[in-house]
């Protein structure tokens, strides 16, 4: 009997304890991942910052022609005019040659306002989140002077 090999009761209990601990940690990790994912998709902050980065990069090579509360018209070096505007429940970029590109979705309202050498953007999303930012811009009137 002393020469037999196999698991003892203590070894089996230890292995079972490690298995239960691993499964419980895995379930906690999955639930935390789902919570983070849910909050990320409900929060529009990431989309807002990506939108601002895209606008800032595009406006480095463009001249702002006209600013109204609802839209902005810009012109690039090749003379192509772009319109940034509210459209249904999104903000889109539309070009003079047709077509459009959605930039922000689930938008309740977006306003543009000219202020000195910049444009102030204020947005309210459908989930009632509000954001405001001021981006530098080159205006056509400034080039004439």
From TrEMBL:
Source taxon at top rank: Bacteria
Protein name: Competence protein ComGF
Gene Ontology biological process terms, A to Z: establishment of competence for transformation
Highest classification ranks of the organism: Bacteria, Bacillati, Bacillota, Bacilli, Lactobacillales
Membrane is among the record's keywords: yes
Compartment(s) of residence: Cell surface
Keywords, ordered alphabetically: Competence, Membrane, Transmembrane, Transmembrane helix
This protein's record includes keyword Zinc: no
Transmembrane segments: 6-28
CC annotations in GO: cell surface
One Pfam family of this chain: N_methyl
